[in-house]
């Protein structure tokens, strides 16, 4: 599914040069791979306080957020306004356990804080959300449960913020939803997944 495509100067620029950073938030540390391919482990506080050299130059930011990570709230302090060149933001949700509702909500609240930190001037063109929900979650009746309503409130706020960016000056043109690795969602499962982001769906900006 691909709609509402548009090529902007930012999009064309992103095709020329990519400076990637991969950050894995797990346990009490962050493992990151910088543009030179070297993996390094630092504490969450060190990351937030500028302990990762070159991060401010990133154009492709790839985050992995584990639902069982005790310091996942640290993601909320990863201010994208301090990374003015990010054009692609990829967020992978890693579900450590299927029944850790609190851990899932903490991850999504961190994603909300990260999205809220996106300034209108950021040249972000593409947001990729990997494993937004699992098949087990979709089949468990979670949407009708208190957890489902709580998750929906968070994702709807993410949805609203992204739409405000689109209505403003940010060049965001695509939000991609990717199922968990090895899983193929049915049409009905995709419908329930996209219902978490109703405004983006109505704007025709969702891809999967």
Give the strand line-up of the largest sheet.
3-2-1-4-5-6-7-8
| Count of helical regions | 7
Question: In total, how many beta strands?
Answer: 8
Class derived from helix and strand content: alpha/beta
Overall tally of structural domains: 1
What helical percentage do the residues reach? Answer: 25-40%
**How much of the polypeptide forms β-strand, as a percent range?**
15-25%
- CA-based shape: globular
**Biggest beta sheet attributes:** 8 strands, mixed
What does this structure look like?
The chain is of the alpha/beta class and 208 residues long. The chain has one domain. The protein contains seven helices and eight strands. An eight-stranded mixed beta sheet has the order 3-2-1-4-5-6-7-8. The N and C termini lie close together (6 Å). 28% of the residues are buried.
Task: Present the secondary structure layout.
Layout: H1 9-14, E1 20-26, E2 29-33, E3 39-43, H2 44-48, E4 60-66, E5 88-94, H3 101-116, E6 126-130, H4 135-139, H5 146-167, E7 174-178, H6 187-194, H7 198-202, E8 206-207
Parallel strand pairs: 1-4, 4-5, 5-6, 6-7, 7-8
Antiparallel strand pairs: 1-2, 2-3
